[in-house]
Amino acid sequence: RRLDVTKKKSAAAMASLEHQIMDATARSVPSTSPAIGLLHTVLKNLAADPTNEKFRSINLSGKAGLKLSAEPSAMTTLAMCGFKEVGGRLVAEGDVDAGRCAAAAA
User: Fold this and answer.
1) Which SS3 state, helix, strand or coil, does residue 23 take?
2) How confident is the model over 92-103, as pLDDT tens digits?
3) Please, which residues have CB within 8 angstroms of residue 43's CB and are 6 or more apart in sequence?
4) What is the C-alpha to C-alpha distance for residues 33 and 11, in angstroms, rounded to an integer?
5) Running DSSP on this structure, what letter comes out for residue 54?
6) 97: left (phi > 0), else alpha (psi -120 to 50), else beta?
7) pTM value surpassing 0.85
8) Where are the alpha helices (DSSP H) in 1-106?
9) What span, in angstroms and rounded, lies between the C-alpha atoms of 99 and 89?
10) 6 — alpha (psi -120 to 50), left (phi > 0) or beta?
11) Minimal CB count within 10 Å: which of 41, 58, 61, 83?
């Protein structure tokens, strides 16, 4: 029973964080930018599973990387979340604080 309560609290915290990320992303990137939805998805995935290597790296020459790199405010937001350019990729280095990502997008 205690596990169920913990799961519910975790789900509520995650939903709150996703809402913060969506709001902050909408404020930091122009609503007409094709990168806004992608940036939201990147941050949401990273917040949900910060240790998953799949969510910690973006190929800058790929479709997503090109879309994000075309929007300076999206790149600034990612940099504030801990992403750094390494060999043609954006890589989230070290521990990524999902709450910091939401704040960075504000």
Assistant:
1) helix
2) 887 766 666 666
3) 21, 25, 77, 81, 98, 101, 102, 105
4) 30
5) G
6) beta
7) no
8) 2-28, 35-48, 63-69, 72-80, 98-104
9) 23
10) alpha
11) 61
